Amino acid sequence: MTESIDIDIQTTIKPNLYWTSLIAGGVAGLVVDVSLFPIDTIKTRLQSERGFWRSGGFKGIYKGLAPAAAGSTPSAALFFVTYESLKSFLSQRVAKEQAPLVHMIAASCGEIVACLIRVPVEIAKQRRQALLVKKGTSSIQLLYQAFKQDGLSKGVYRGFCVTIFREVPFSFIQFPLWEYLKTQWEPYTGLTLNPISVAMCGAVSGGIAAALTTPLDVLKTRIMLAESDAKNKSIGKLLKSIYRENGMRGLFSGIVPRVMWITLGGAIFFGFYDLTTKFLQNNDMKSWFGLTQRSPKNRLSLDNLKNLLSVLEKNKTVSEANRGLLVESLRCIAEILIWGDQNDGSVFDFFLEKNMLSYFLHIMRQKSGGSSFVCVQLLQTLNILFENIRNETSLYYLLSNNHVNSIIVHKFDFSDEDVMGYFILFLKTLSLKLNSHTIHFFYNEHTNDFPLYTEAIKFFNHPESMVRIAVRTISLNVYKVDNESMQQFIRDRTAAPYFSNLVWFIGKHVLELDACVRNDQDHQSQHRLSNLVAEHLDHLHYLNDILLLEIEGLNAVLTEHLLHKLFVPLYVYSLTPPTPDLAVVTRNLAAVLNKIVDIDDVAETCDNPRVSSIVALFLLSLVFLVISHSPLVHALAWVILNGDHSVFKEGAAEILNNYIQRREGSMVALGFVQPRESLEEALDSSSLNNLSPSTSGIINNDTSSGSSSPIARQNDSSDASLSEEIEKKSCRPFLDMILHSLDCNENDYVALLALCLLYALANNKGLNKDWLDLVLNKSSSPVATQYNDVLIDKLLNIIHISSTPSCRVRLVTIELTLKLLTQLLNSNSSQISDNHRTSLQQARSQSMTVLKNFYKSEDIFLDLFEDEYNEMVKSNLNVEFLCMDETILLPPTNTPLTGIEFSRRLPCGEVEKARRAIRFFFLIRKMCQSINNEVEQLLPLTNPSHCVQIENALDLNNSDLIACTVIMKDGTKYRRFLVIDILQLILVEPDPRKLGFGIAKFVGFLQDVEVNGDKDDSRCLHLTIHRGGPSNNRTPILSAKFIFDDHIRCMAAKQRLTKGRSKARQKKMYQIAQLLEIPQLNESPTPIYSSMLRETRTARTPREHRPLFSTSNRIPGVASALRRESMPSGSVSRSQLVSSRTSMDGSQKPSSPPINTPKSRDGSKNRRSHSGTPKSRDGSPRVERTSEEIPMENLNSNPSSRCSSNAPSRSHTPSRLTTDSTNTLSLAKEVISTSTINGNIRQRSEETSFIGSSSSNGNSTGNVEEKEKRRKGAIETV
Amino acid sequence: MSYAYLFKYIVIGDTGVGKSCLLLQFTDKRFQPVHDLTIGVEFGARMITIDGKQIKLQIWDTAGQEAFRSITRSYYRGAAGALLVYDITRRETFNHLTTWLEDARQHSNSNMVIMLLGNKSDLESRREVKKEEGEAFAREHGLVFMETSARTAANVEEAFIQTAKEIYEKIQEGVFDINNEANGIKIGTVSTPPTSPIGSNVSGQSSNSCC
Question: What distance in Å separates the CA atoms of residue A861 and residue A853, rounded to the nearest whole number?
């Protein structure tokens, strides 16, 4: 436990402090002296002048126990009382760093006081111990004798000074050490402090102190034992004489027993002290000494509450002495009340009857020392009370008299963090209890008092964010309550002051944000900016939450404040660059019109604070993204899209009138200015004077005199008036500015933000889409521009610029442009004009040209390409999230060192440029396809539906299988067969139900395979398969060691994997080439492909495969056996396959006879007989079992191989690839893959393919579901 | 009371998982848990010592604020540490963890230390969520995990202190921007100055005084 908590606890137990330490000290002293008396005796005798043996040796070791026992209790008690009270007194006044000093002083004073008793006792005791006393003399007589002989100071208090001289240094060392050890105990050992650990601290500190102060002890013993003080030497001389007589040993004589004694003594002493203290504290001191009545045993009972009440009654004034007691009582009261709430109704009756809350109030109002300490507890109690109460009636009881309101208005010491926290959460807890019934406890209709709300909103700009959050919660909880008069009060009395101050607060915050953007062109204080943006968003969301509550009157006030105090005069105002000559223009105008215009006003507008146009665009986007309150967004959108500079003079009141029903004239003056009164003042004055609706929000600014006069409602058909309005306007500076910003010839800094704003406008839920169209399009005057067309042109221009290789447009801008463009084109009922279409097509071909430059046969390009595709699929641009990102406020950069996500900055380096080109290509391709209503067919490169999935059952007859043992990183081993497909690597285990089938246990893409040999074991391969695809997980999907039966198989596997990998990649690169319409690739396959083909045609490869096929006895299934029979050469040569396949292409397929369908039984018998060949069984132990239950389709899929061993060519038919999806022969005999991707490539690359088919048919005897799950197909070898 | 740092914590999780009880158990030990009486509080503060430094933990459990979007979003941001609590006797509270975590990750600053706590570990007989599941979840999402009991006070202290230690370590590593109070860390008024990152003027001064 820490020191501060120590102090805390000590202060809480303060009233008991004296008693506790008195008793604890006494007990401790007694125990020590009695138990350790013998050691003390021995020590005294050792130090005596007469020497150990002459002083008595071990005889009569308990001599002097009586006086010691009699004296130790009072002296130890006196010591601790002094020590503890001085410590607690001093530690409150002294900085914590000086705690050791406090302990030293307290201990020394304690010692001096204790010595008043200890010295006489010591004298009596030591004289007895040293056997200097005649038998029969009592201790009292002894002291009396000494008194008579030498007087008080020289006899009874002989050696007082020297004792102090010993004890004080001792305490100086021991106590700070002890306290220090105690504080260090917990951090170092991690255990809580208990009496045993306290005892150990005491032992160590005592031992050290004892050893160091031994010489002083020797001195004291000598002086005390001297019968008369004849020599009266000074202390120094005495020490010297001891040193002369006995050397160092003399000075430190008795050190061993002394250290032992004090170590042991310290342990026992402090241990017992702590134990007793704890014991006393837990057992409620009060009952022991009759401070109060006896506490009942049951803490949670009505009786105890009565006791606690009497405590409150007796301690009406808070003082240093009783505050701990009070705190404790308050705490107990809370517990009992909650217990009563759930168990015993009478508790609340009593609480109410005795009006106990008034005691709380009374305590709270006292400004005595440490009041915040009591207040914290009080507020905690109240919090606990209101938070944990479940019973509705109990709540009414608590609220019934006005005490809670009095507590609310009490001015606590809010500078104390804890008081503030408890207080605001107390208000929040109360606000959560508000409903149409309880509101009357808080809101007084007659006096128009609503302290809960008014007190809470005073903290709306508190520096602590959690407090602000609580204030917002409280206010929202209040607004939510459905009570007419309360809402009226809120609107009339508090809304204007609160909202004007809130808006000002937000505005100041915005200026801060702007300053941050201006000063942070180098991305140096992104953190701060990010916080400012987040904070601003919090404000907006809060405003939106209020608006969403749909409280008409309140919303009207808020809307006006927002519009006239912030959005128009600051945001919109900042959109257009400052016009320094505005004053001049006005003056000229005035001259022309022969009117006197107050130029100062205009000048004043120029002096208004303004933010950069970047920030203004950003802020407006946020407004439209967050707020959807229809009148507000309409008015603001109108101003932006349609307004001109006159809006700064006239305000948007006119527009607002169209949307707000019961608007009573404009009351809020235009201008971003500080409210005249602070919220607190405004609230106080309005509650005091009961003024008619507060006017504090209104500033009688001359500039706004025009707008403050109520404007007659315009006619109801707002559309009509609006279109008239639009026709009149020809100058739309704000819209022009936005459109102008879209120009990103140089870079897209402003363009992105303008796009955000346009997107937000177009997607705001509160804005009527037709209305937006109307504003944008309906410009009947021939001169006026069709803004929609202009906008589309601008957007297309961005796309065009982006397609150039050296553009400085970020991906996010492109994405947003395309998004907006899609939206605009879709909403436009008219067809997309050909111009637009061609422009997009041009951009696409341009992007392809750019990308072609990056097209390389390097591995990384494929990875980049697929990665970017996955990224694009995953990410769906969310403009709301985009606008939470502060980085878009800063000038675009290209360095990744800023930590900005790739799409939100410019590419850095070649790789990123390639990435960008790829991504742009995807985006524009998608766009073009969507306007042409095309469906994507070439992407993604891997069609997952053509891939083998885990747990698929595969027909592995005719496939190359390599048996291996897979050893995972964690040591687990699996026995598997390795199969290599075109794109995938598959690990299978034999299907127990079907011979020749395997179940895929693992699949991975060949392109992601990394193969490494093992230099120590030639049968070993290390395989790592990286994770491709749209996942964030970057750990490899497999990283394991594969052990093969011999090094030849191992080599074969390695070769196949490596080849498979490069082929898979080549295939994909070819696909990309197709996508990019790279011409030479379109005409002929890549050189690698053609060479492969040539190779296979010359039939050189078979040898390589030979061992695997012919000699492997690991190949399960009949097919291999069959093959051997059918092909004496022992191998399925790829060239043969190809040639047969190509030759068969037209003829073989239809001619393959439908032998199988009706012969399921025969087939299975047939098959069994085949599988009977011993060779094939070796490797597949399950053959016997599986053959029993071969379902029919198994036969179906491989009919020819089984039925006619003499027709080798037929055995290949299952693996035929065909693009003809309509071929229904699959039902009976062939499984056909419908390859949508690059059918002809596949054919040429003549690799294996799983032939997915839905060929299961009704006549099969097998389980239909089973068949669904299983995947039928055949695998053939590479 | 002076402190070197103040860490702001939030406690999140479904209602009824014992968030406020955990909080009270940590901040005010004098409330000894009694059978069939659960008491909680939404705010509390306590001093602890880490590495010889006094650190004040201020814990805000702002339950009942879920109704408003503005509140939930700002709530997370002001905290340096979060305790994500579920109830081991109620499976659904465990199932909702993902949602809580998403919310927290989305709105909080990225450095916020999140600790996962399975509360009510004293109710072993009614356990629905295995300890291993909690551990697995924590591992998956990179959280520290403990099972606690507000009733028996088991691990309560440790949970808060462990979190504070992690925050403290992050400060030492310079990950946290301590000068920005929005991160939920406040530098204390008195006591040791914060470790300054390569303070050129500081070293300059010290070299002057040396010479």
Answer: 11
